[in-house]
Design brief:
The complex is a heterodimer of chains A (193) and B (391). Chain A has 193 residues and is α/β, with parallel strands linked by helices. Chain A has helices at residues 3-14, 37-46, 109-120, 163-170, and strands at 18-22, 29-32, 54-63, 70-78, 85-93, 98-100, 123-125, 153-154, 157-158. In chain B, helix 3 runs antiparallel to helix 4 and helix 11 (275-302) runs parallel beside helix 14 (372-382). Classes of the chains: A alpha/beta (193), B alpha+beta (391).
Chain lengths: 193, 391
């Protein structure tokens, strides 16, 4: 089935749940509301004419400059039965991006959603195990947000070179092999007594 | 300073959750048979695994963050470093996705070279996969035979582009180097040796070996529905009996012009979708790749040499848009979701759908109820490369 046909079918079934359809894009996509996505995903898989049984990719993209600022969650679907594909998008508010999980429909969504949570801070409601996946468990923040600033310290270690360190490195001094020369704030330094 | 770890759950199961006979066993991250730095937490009851939890991320190198801060061609060396056993496939997938975004059509000459490189890389990659799999479960010799032949492929690559592991070869709109004079002859020599010696040897020594079959044909069974739900692709999917291959379904680089078969698992010695089937598919696929290579070098020989950098844009700057491009890498479908904002020379967002990532996400389902020793056989049969899982 062509993309337009798939969109018509979803529009007929979900009405207001499907808010837009971009037919002119390289790969046409439909925008759906976050309230509808759970049911809509299950329908995409179960409907015999759509049979979109494979979630090829789930990504999140940050658009801070869009009006209003948003995070998009993008679902690339594929049907092994009919060999056709479709793209769904959900627009979420940037401050509090929350969307229902689809891991019950496609098992692979479990890890993709954990990755989107880890790197962009999208919260997937109802997810069975929403933990960080690629970054360490004690990491703070979500680095793929466009306003991300590299932290200066990680667990007490100085990880961002200071201007002085750069200067000394340029002068030929070997840095980074001995103890760090910058004592981070509120770190206990043992003394001889 | 960072906030301290607040969740007890963050690092794994709590002691209170265990039954009397259960024990938590950490496998990795430096376990030799995990093919990289993979840590698996196993909840065991004697020798039986009650539940498993893979922990990944030890090799995370921020590929997607890097990709946003360099220009489009600058991403290619980073893609090489994801699946470092099959770098040609990674850069090819990325180049194809950007070309799709910019509507660049490369010449048949470049396409043919790309096919040759991709298929040579597939043989090299499957050599590692099948060889180390045998080694994981006790067969050391086939590994040496296969590495001997992989070495010849790396020599061909080195001769062409100067690198043996990370090539930076497939560029957006072309290739970094043309193949050298005499490449076709050397390639034929390799194929002769592969067809006459390595492949039959492998089938006799490992794949047809009774001990190997008994060891692998009953374990790690994955049904087709489960495989599709967890997005297993490539040999893992075909091992479960689903005859899907992007080279046939959505031919790119002119794959439609080559005669080859899609290898599908048969379940000849046990249930369909077992560890043996996945591995058998890989082994036979090497033979199919050789078939494609024979045709491709014949084509290349008859073609007139053209400039392989002819279509390489001076400045890669796609218009506003986005594309999800996928290709059949040795480990399965490798997808790139690339968003271009139309103003910058660097990508707005690059998301990689790695076949190893999705293959690892099914692990906890397949591992349940297995013996600990079989876990090793299961990891090897999924053929994961941690560089690509963690990116």
């Amino acid at each position: 089935m062509e993309s337009a046909g798939i969109h018509d079918r979803l529009k007929a079934r979900f009405g207001e749940g499907v808010t837009a359809f971009e037919a002119g894009a390289l790969q046409p996509f439909a925008v759906v509301t976050s309230d509808a996505i759970g049911e809509l995903a299950a329908f995409c898989k179960a409907d015999p004419d759509l049979a979109l049984d494979n979630l090829m990719c789930l990504s999140a993209v940050d658009y801070p400059k869009a009006e209003p600022p948003r995070i998009e969650v993008v679902y690339h679907l594929w049907s092994y039965r009919h060999l056709h594909g479709f793209v769904l998008k959900v627009f979420l508010p940037r401050e509090d991006p929350r969307v229902p999980t689809v891991e019950g429909v496609w098992g692979v969504a479990n890890w993709h959603e954990r990755e989107a949570y880890d790197l962009l801070g999208v919260v997937f409601e109802g997810h069975s195990d929403l933990r960080r996946i690629l970054l360490p468990d004690d990491w703070t923040g979500h680095p793929l947000r466009k306003d991300w600033v590299d932290p200066e310290f990680y667990n007490g270690m100085h990880v961002k070179p200071t201007a002085q360190m750069a200067e000394r490195a340029m002068a030929g001094e070997q840095l980074g092999v001995g103890p760090f020369d910058v004592t981070p704030p509120n770190r206990h330094v043992p003394t001889d007594q | 300073m960072n906030s301290p770890i607040t969740s007890d759950q963050a690092y794994g199961w709590r002691i209170e959750d265990l039954d009397v006979d259960e024990m938590i066993l950490n496998m990795g991250p430096q376990h030799p048979s995990t093919h990289g730095v993979l840590r698996i937490e196993l909840k065991t009851d004697g020798e039986v695994v009650r539940a498993a939890r893979p922990h990944i991320g030890y090799l995370h190198r921020c590929f997607e963050k890097h990709a946003e801060s360099v220009d489009y061609p600058g991403v290619i060396p980073y893609t090489d470093r994801m699946d470092y056993v099959a770098s040609m496939g990674n850069s090819l997938g990325y180049a194809l996705a950007v070309e799709k975004l910019m509507a660049i059509e490369v010449s048949p000459y470049v396409q043919t070279i790309r096919v040759i490189m991709a298929e040579l890389q597939r043989i090299a990659s499957h050599s590692i996969a099948v060889g180390t799999y045998g080694m994981d479960i006790g067969a050391f010799t086939p590994f040496l035979h296969l590495l001997r032949d992989r070495e010849k492929i790396l020599d061909l690559f080195e001769w062409t582009c100067g690198a043996r592991l990370l090539y930076n070869y497939n560029w957006v709109g072309g290739l970094s180097h043309d193949v050298p004079e005499g490449f076709v002859k050397a390639c034929r020599q390799f194929l002769r040796e592969f067809d006459a010696i390595t492949y039959p040897e492998l089938m006799d020594l490992l794949i047809g070996n009774k001990i190997f079959i008994k060891r692998t044909a009953e374990i790690g069974v994955c049904s087709p529905e489960l495989a599709i739900s967890y997005d297993l692709t490539g040999p893992n999917l075909r091992g479960s009996g689903v005859p899907r291959d992007l080279r046939k379904d959505e031919p790119y680089c002119g794959y439609g012009q080559y005669a080859f078969d899609v290898v599908v698992g048969k379940g000849a010695y046990g249930p369909l979708g077992s560890c043996f089937d996945r591995n058998w598919v890989r082994a036979v696929e090497m033979h199919e790749s050789a078939k494609i290579l024979h045709q491709a070098v014949d084509r290349l020989e008859k073609m007139e040499r053209t400039d392989v950098r002819e279509k390489v844009p001076k400045r890669v700057k796609p218009n506003k848009g986005e594309v999800y491009g996928r290709s059949e890498a040795p480990r399965g479908q490798l997808g790139y979701y690339i968003v271009a904002d139309g103003t910058a020379v660097n990508p707005y967002r690059v998301k990689v759908k790695s076949p190893c990532f999705t293959a690892m996400s099914i692990f906890h389902v397949l591992a349940r109820g297995m013996y600990i020793a079989d876990i090793i056989a299961l990891i090897g049969s999924l053929d994961v490369v941690l560089g690509e899982i963690d990116r």
